[in-house]
Amino acid sequence: MDNSCNYRSAVAYGYAHLVTDEEERLYAMTRITDSLLPGRWENSRNPPTPAELKSTSILRVRIVSASAKVRTGGPSDDRKDLKDEALRGSVWTGVVPCWLEWGGGGWEG
User: Fold this and answer.
1) Residues 12-70 pLDDT 10s
2) Which of 38, 56, 103, 105 counts the highest number of beta carbons within 10 A?
3) What is the pLDDT of residue 27?
């Protein structure tokens, strides 16, 4: 029960509309792709095939409201648990660091 995780979360509410204009669709696909890995669109096979375009939907969203939550910091133990020396000696509490890294593994594009 006493586990926690640091996180960042956002929720946006709005109205979505299917984008059908091909120029706008390609613009959106370029921006989405490059937001994940800058320059990726130009270093990919272009243009997308008709089948790829047909199988990909792009939505334009007019955001009405949004909220965000952030949890940071270290563990927070119950006061009762902190007073229990046997428990403190048998249960580890702390922070496990995590990093996200693109690439590696000898992949060549």
Assistant:
1) 999 999 999 999 999 999 999 999 889 999 999 988 999 999 999 999 999 999 999 99
2) 56
3) 97
Whether residue 65 contacts residue 13, with contact meaning beta carbons closer than 8 Å, is answered with: yes
54 closest CA partner among 33, 80, 77, 25: 25
Q: Above 80 in pLDDT, residue 102?
A: no
Block residue for tokens 């048998």: 90
- The ranges assigned to domains in the chain are 7-75
CA distance 70 to 73: 10
Ramachandran sector of residue 16 (left: φ over 0; alpha: ψ -120 to 50; beta: rest): beta
Among 2, 11, 13, residue whose Cα is nearest residue 69: 11
- The pLDDT-based confidence of 98 (bands split at 50, 70, 90) is confident
Rg (CA), the chain: 23
